[in-house]
Each structure stands twice: as C-alpha cells, then as structure tokens.
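Supplementary Methods, section 5.1.

A reviewer requested that the exact input to the structure prediction be made available. We therefore reproduce it here, unchanged from the version used in the analyses.
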Amino acid sequence: MFKKITFVFSLISIVLCNLQSLAQNNGEEDWMVKNSKSLSELWELGDEHNRGTFIITSYKPIYITPAKYSSNTNESPQAENSSKTLDGPLNLNAVEAKFQISLKTKLFHNMLNGHMDLWMGYSQTAYWQIYNTERSRPFRELNYQPEIIANFPIEFKFLGFKAKMVGASIIHESNGQSDPISRSWNRIAFHAGFERNNWQVTLKPWIRIGSKIDDNENISDYIGRGEADITYDWRRQRFRAIAKHSLNYGDKSRGSIQLNWSFPIFENFNGHLQLFEGYGETLIDYNHRQTTFGVGVSLIN
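The structure derived from this sequence is encoded token-by-token as follows.
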C-alpha cells in the first residue's frame, strides 16, 4: 500500500511541477484569466457590481483532487450516543479522490429599501474510493449543502480592514444516507466579510437548529460552532486557511484547520494542494480525527 501511495503522489507531483514550470516559462503576460476577485465583485456589493438576478456564479472553490491520503481512515463510523453500527468494518483505501462543486445565484436585489440581497447557494463534496478495486470503486461519502443567504453591504474600517458585508444564512447539510450512517444538521449562521489589500477575512459563527430525529447529536462539539476563512493572494497564487472550533475548552476543545494553496498552470487551470487536520472533514467523519493531504487542480478559486 505504501508503495502505491508513494507512486501516486510522486506521479502527480511530477506532472504538476512540469506544468507549472511550463507556465512560468511563458512569462508574466496575462495568459491567466484573473479569478481573484474582491468581496464586492463576488457578492455584487453596490450598483456598479450588480449583474442581476438568477445568474449562476461560483460560490466556494471548485476543485478536483485525484489523490487524497488519510492518516486514519474511518472504517467503523458511529454516531455519538448511538448504538447503531454497521455489520462490519469498511474496507477503505487510504488514498481516494475528492472533488467539490459550489454555485450561487442572487434571487432578489435591493430588498428592505435597498439594503439587502437574497442569495441561494449549493455546494457538493464527493469522496470517491476510485482506487479501491475490491469494493468496485464506490463513492464513500457525498455531502450536500444547500443554503439561503441574506447579505447586507456595509462600509467602515475595523482594525485596519474594510468591513464590506454582514449577513445571515440558513444552512442544511446532509450525506443522503440511511441508518446507521445517516448524518445531517441544520444551522443559522451569521457572517461578516473584511478586506485589506490582498487579504480577505470572513468570520462565520453559527447556531445549530435542533431536531427530534438526531443522528449526530453532538456534532457542534466536534466540527465546531464557527469558522474563520482567511485568504491571501500573492501574485498569481492563492493561500487559504479555514479554521473551525467548538468554542469549548479542555477535553472538548476540538475543531479543524484546512490549508489550501493554488497556483497557476495554464489560463484558468490551477494546481491545488490541500492539507486538513482535525474533526469533520466529511459528515460521516464528524467525530473522527484524521490528517489528510490531497494533490489536484483548482478550476475556480
């Protein structure tokens, strides 16, 4: 297994390095379409950025990771405070593929006397055991996340940053499975977005909405009760960190951090490296800690 993992990552790394070298040899001309946009452009803050309603645009990053390695595969997933288990452990490969698509569209513009836009977003992340021939290459986990977002443009300075927007959203996330591996939760989230030069910072605390049927009762104690999303653009590269925390202390101080680096290869085709450590990379793994590393390509940052 270790030889297979080494071969996969070595092959992908060689291809990406050669492609990046080829791209750099083309000079600093604008052969790459700039996809690093301000919050004003991304969320159409102000009439000068308004594009109208029901136009589909990107939301979160869209990427494909052909190889992602996990230090601790979760072969016996089980929800907290539940006695329901699988008949036996899953036979999982440590290396799998991952991809994410994420889109949004504006439903209403200038609501509440011109102070609010209403958006709808949808994200889907897939984890594919593509190298697991013994189990016929199944999709291990699919996470679906639709949401409704109310966004309010603002403009003031805060700690050297420019506050650009605040808002709230209703978020549902589930994996579409049945017991004993069904996972889902609903949240009301609040957000605030800030900018400074090449920096973008979004803070998002949330409150979980309870349910009579709860297949992951303590999910907030693992995945967290809020996140900080920090992005820095340097030349044609983008560095992004997403940190989540339970806002608890002691033994319940849990959460995760995801580090991303995307760099140009050719036009909109970017290399993408992703490192994750902590709980809840997927819903099925919400109470399972692991470290993962993936190599792939990013289509939209």
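The helical segments are 2-25, 39-42, 111-114. These observations are discussed further in the main text.
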